[in-house]
Design brief:
single chain, Phosphorylase Kinase, domain 1, Transferase(Phosphotransferase), domain 1, 2 domains, 8-stranded antiparallel sheet, 3-stranded antiparallel sheet, 3 helices, 11 strands, globular
């Protein structure tokens, strides 16, 4: 896997792209342009802040996402972030976290390519990842989801040293075979994952489940929490 393809484009500013050379045989900035016909782009209807598309990436089904701000920050800029160096670019960081988890065998989408466009003191960014077929969100499949399996998946992520910044009922997916997938690792970090930090991550999921399913969501989370705590005791935490 090649690490970095750097391209100078004086009309757009400095541009850098990171990609999986086994998937992206011919790196091209048009891969991130939903209007480019070969992508066969279709907007993602749920989530994505109207900046995500289902696309073709070579021979693979993929998801293209342009990074966009939410909340109050979007009033200042919809898609520009403060430049503090390439090491802090959100798309490259998410690509690297996903790659490490994917290579460790965790159920996350394989990252295909990431890019940023720098404009002076700001930058824009985009990411392309594998599309997981025939999936439902945990929020919509709570009645059939196995809380122990979800707990094991989150525990495995934590054991890899990754803290998910937005662990909620929409970023956990179940495929038609019941397998659990974790998605959306924007702003994921690799801090020292104490039991307290792990618990805080789980409590974010708890708030999400209560919001989408009320008392049933809380009961389901209680089962997940017990399974997770059993896993921590098994490794002597």
């Amino acid at each position: 896997m090649r690490e970095l393809l750097a391209v100078k484009d004086w009309s757009e500013g400095a541009t850098a792209m990171r990609y999986d050379a086994k998937v992206v045989a011919q790196p091209d900035l048009r891969l991130f342009d939903a209007a480019w016909p070969p992508l066969e782009a279709e907007p993602v209807s749920e989530g994505g802040r109207k900046s995500a598309w289902y696309v073709r990436c070579g021979q693979n089904d993929a998801v293209l996402r342009h990074y966009r701000r939410g909340g109050w920050a979007a009033r200042i800029s919809v898609d520009r972030y403060i430049w503090t160096g390439a090491d802090n670019v959100r798309s490259l960081n998410e690509f690297d976290v996903l790659r490490s988890l994917y290579e460790a065998g965790l159920p996350v989408p394989r990252p295909y390519a990431a890019v940023y466009w720098r404009h002076g003191f700001t930058y824009r960014a985009a990411l392309i990842v594998e599309r997981i077929p025939d999936v439902s969100t945990l929020a919509s499949a709570l009645n059939v989801a196995d809380s122990e399996q979800v707990a094991r998946c989150i525990f495995a992520m934590h054991e890899q040293g990754v803290w998910h910044a937005d662990l909620n009922a929409y970023n956990i997916l179940l495929d038609k075979e019941g397998r659990v997938w974790l998605i959306d690792f924007d702003k994921a970090r690799r801090p020292v994952l104490s039991l307290e930090r792990r618990s805080a991550n789980l409590l974010r999921l708890r708030r999400s489940l209560i919001k989408v399913a009320g008392a049933h969501g809380l009961t389901w989370w209680d089962d997940l929490s017990r399974s997770y705590m059993q896993l921590t005791r098994a490794v002597g935490m």
